[in-house]
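Journal club side-thread
Mid-discussion, someone asked how the predicted structure for our own chain would compare to the paper's figures. Pasting it here so we can look after the session.
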Amino acid sequence: MFRLSKTTDYGIVLMAQLASAPDRTPLNARELAQSSDLPIPMVSKILKALAREGLLVSQRGSKGGYQLARLPEQLTVSEMIRVLEGPVALTDCAIGPELCSHESLCTVREPWQLISRVVEQALADVTLADLVKRRANGFHPSVSHALQIERAAPTREATE
C-alpha cells in the first residue's frame, strides 16, 4: 500500500495550520503542538526540517515562531512530501537508474516510471491553499493533463 509516513502527514497538517493562521502570524512549536494534539518534540523536529528546506521561516524571540516561506498557493503537496519523505516514486527504478538489480531485465520498469510521474504530477497540482480551502462542495483539485494517460487505439485484430 502506498502510504505517507506519520511525519509527512503531520508535517502537512502543520503547514495547513500555518496557512490558516490569521494574517500569517508566526506560531511557535508549542502552539502548533497544542492545536494539533501532537507531541512537542515531534512538532519541533518537523518544523525544523521544513525550515531547513526553505518551506518555513523561523523567527526567534518572544513573538517569534514559524511562518510559511511562500504563499499557500505556491506550495505544492508534492514539494512538501519530497522535503519530508524524499522523492515521490512508487518503485526504486522511478527514483533513478541503478537502484534495482533487476532493472535491465524488468518488463514493467517503464510503466511504473510513467505511473510514478502521473502520481507526482497529481500531487504537484494540489497546493497547500487547496488543502485549507473550505469549499461547500468538498475538495476538488484541478485535474491535470498528465492524469489523462494516452491509450493506443485498438488495432483492427483486437476489435475483431
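Post-session note: The mean pLDDT is 82.
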